[in-house]
Amino acid sequence: MLSKVNQEEVVEFAREIIRRNSPSGQEGEVARLVESKMRSLGYDRVQVDPYGNVIGLRFGKNPGGTVLFDGHMDVVPVTNSEAWTEEPFSAAVREGKIWGRGASDMKGPLAAAIVALGRIPVDEFSGTLAVSASIGEEVHEGAALAKVNEQVHPDGVVICEPNGCKLGVGQKGRAGIKIEVFGKPAHSSVPHLGENAIYRAVEIINRLRRMALPTDPLLGEGVMELIDGISSPYPSLSTVPVQFTMRYDRRLVQDETMESVRASIQASLEGLADWSMVIPKVKIETYPGEVLKEPDFHPGWAIDPGSPWIRKASRGLEMAGIQPETTTARFCTNGSYTAGVAGLPTLIFGPSSGLLAHCVDEYIAIDELIQGAEGYWGLAKELAK
Q1: Cα–Cα distance between 222 and 215 in angstroms, integer?
Q2: How far is CA 175 from the centre of its chain?
Q3: Total-model pTM
Q4: For the segment 12-49, what is each residue's pLDDT rounded down to a tens digit?
Q5: 4 pLDDT exceeds 90?
Q6: Helices marked H in the chain — which ranges?
Q7: Class of residue 267 by CB neighbours under 10 A (exposed 0-12, middle 13-18, buried 19+)
Q8: Each residue of 52-77: pLDDT tens digit?
Q9: Domains of the chain listed by start with CATH number
Q10: Which whole-number Å values give the CA distances from 158 to 52, 143, 252, 349, in the listed order?
């Protein structure tokens, strides 16, 4: 397993990349540090693709499969730094924890994977181990990893998101939905001459709150939540709103498609006029200048906890001294592409808790960070056999 020196290396590299602010589209500095670290660890091949994903490969002494470990480099913005106990990009160490934006989500887990897989002796693993430090996950789960997948062609994938070092066998997916409601303009002093789009939207909102949502035995119940709305014209100058645009966050369970999601909304709003719905495309402007543009739809997925993939993963965690415990994630990950679209055996495993993601005073406990690194070591040795 990892030596004391290697454990310290994990901590120091995590702190090094936490210190660099890397919102989506601005991951370049972290990417350069990751590339340099992979080269210093002796990865057999290191490349940065046109979209800015950093990919490191190691080739084992014995034949085997290809397993990809993925962690994203981007973080959500810090909007209220004055509320933090420690400066958000200080990577301060206090109370046995590293504090800072991205400590849990997910520079700590990314650093643990890079160092752990880089330090496994070549004669102790089979096949090919790949690590991707991917871009843009915080704005579009899966778009960048799809490009990595085209280059690596993995047989299985480990998504390094924080989940308490458990075996994540599935996750809810996510869809962004935009609904526009249309009215008729009029001066607000004579509103009866127009049709207020906001009033028309009220019935749509009420129906969608009552809409039946699918339930999954592993992932639970789907979610449909209104997260913002804006009228047009805005700001209004004594004009009845002619349009009201709403955005919904739809959390998905297994087997839901864009077509089934659209159909359920249309059925719920049957008989109502003057509205439209779209699943918009998300545009990712990457730091090298390439653009990714994909629909804001990310399937939910689950894998049989008794499958060969999970049995092998369980053995790997046991080798690392971690008692395997299966779980599923409410949040969405890059696994929406590898499992939900590409159909690859996928699992989620990472140190710390997803509940610490995006919050004030984000941190990762150092003992959990080291446990995660040991877990990646065990998973790598077992999954590529």
Answers
A1: 6
A2: 13
A3: 0.95
A4: 999 999 999 999 999 999 999 999 999 999 999 999 99
A5: no
A6: 4-18, 28-41, 108-119, 143-152, 197-210, 258-268, 308-319, 335-338, 366-383
A7: exposed
A8: 999 999 999 999 999 999 999 999 99
A9: 4-172+300-383 (3.40.630.10), 173-285 (3.30.70.360)
A10: 20, 16, 21, 7
